[in-house]
Design brief:
With 338 residues, this protein is mainly α. It contains 17 helices and no strands. The protein is globular, with a radius of gyration of 21 Å. The two termini are 31 Å apart.
């Protein structure tokens, strides 16, 4: 422990120092409101021209061009994360989610014949090599943990012929690896963040399963291990009434979050807005990392904030191109880190 405290200023000093400067460039609430209130796509891009996104989006006129520009910008964010020298586990935390998404797309394309070509900027999973490994049924060619994820997804799909099982397995394997990374890093902040992320994922599974009338067996197979709330709690509550379930969750940190999801489920039969509320919950948790003067936590929080900011810009610009109303855009908004 003494060694860690003496080494932290050297190891994390550059990253934390840079973050203090970079945080001043994050979007503020006023600019976000201007973006939402913009008359159209062109005006929104013009407003972003006042920020570092200006040169990134220059010339972008279609949704595909916007997606490409923001994906390229994301690569620069992760480049900074690598330069901050936090270590491979922190970098893997962010890149893993992109790689698992890409593996999901590849598996669905192969097994379901879905012609989906939407890939996030990859980390350690080479798209071409992964496609070949899946097509040849040579999962051992995939790096860990993707080989296990692909093999399990194939087994579950072939046993059930349900494409949804691919999503379930990939999510489970992703969180299993995130939990492993958190344990290996031995930072309480990261472990807590992963466990709470798993809780929220399980809340979504629970709510969606109730909405769709799924059976208890489906829920048991879908839930994810290692959350602060045990799987047994969700399974015990699943047959209960909404009143009983809400009463039980009032005793947890997710009381307001659960009620928000339940209310949307009842009123709309969906959880689209709940996804935004859940993202806000995690972003507020990440803000606690600011309290650490020298450590990986401030850099982690900033990186999460940039991901969130890029997501917001993507929602607004694609929404403007699609002609979505300001009301709908506001419903899909996430909080800001600043």
């Amino acid at each position: 422990m003494i060694y860690r405290s003496l080494s932290d200023p050297i190891k994390y000093g550059y990253g934390v120092g840079r973050v203090k400067v970079l945080e001043t460039r994050l979007l503020n609430v006023q600019r976000l409101e201007r973006l939402v209130e913009a008359a159209d796509f062109s005006q929104a891009v013009h407003i972003l021209g006042e920020t570092e996104y200006g040169h990134v989006l220059e010339g972008a006129e279609t949704s595909d061009e916007v997606e490409k520009a923001l994906d390229d910008y994301s690569v620069q964010v992760y480049k900074f994360l690598r330069e901050a020298n936090l270590g491979e586990n922190w970098l893997s935390f962010f890149l893993l989610r992109h790689d698992m998404h890409n593996l999901r797309v590849i598996l669905k394309s192969h097994f379901l014949g879905e012609e989906v070509d939407v890939f996030f900027p990859p980390g350690r999973l080479d798209i071409t090599s992964a496609r070949e490994a899946v097509s040849l049924d040579r999962f051992e060619r995939l790096p860990s943990p993707f080989a296990r994820a692909a093999r399990r997804a194939k087994e579950k799909y072939e046993a059930t012929k349900l494409g949804q099982m691919i999503d379930i397995v990939i999510d489970q394997e992703m969180f299993e690896e995130l939990y492993r990374l958190a344990l290996a890093e031995k930072r309480r902040f990261l472990k807590e963040f992963v466990m709470i992320s798993i809780d929220i994922a399980n809340l979504k599974i629970f709510l969606r399963s109730k909405i769709l009338g799924k059976g208890l067996d489906f829920v048991a197979e879908s839930l994810i291990e290692h959350g602060t709330l045990p799987k047994q709690l969700f399974l015990a509550l699943f047959p209960d009434s909404w009143e009983g379930i809400i009463g039980r969750f009032r005793a947890t940190r997710y009381a307001n979050l659960f009620v928000e999801g339940w209310r949307e489920a009842m009123e709309r039969g969906s959880l689209n807005h709940f996804d935004a509320v859940a993202d806000n919950f995690l972003l507020n948790l990440a803000k606690h990392g600011k309290r650490v003067s020298l450590g990986p936590e401030p850099v982690f929080g900033y990186t999460l904030a940039k991901e969130n900011e890029i997501k917001i810009i993507r929602i607004i610009l694609i929404g403007k191109l699609a002609g979505l109303s300001k009301k709908v855009l506001k419903e899909r908004m996430r909080s800001l880190y600043v």
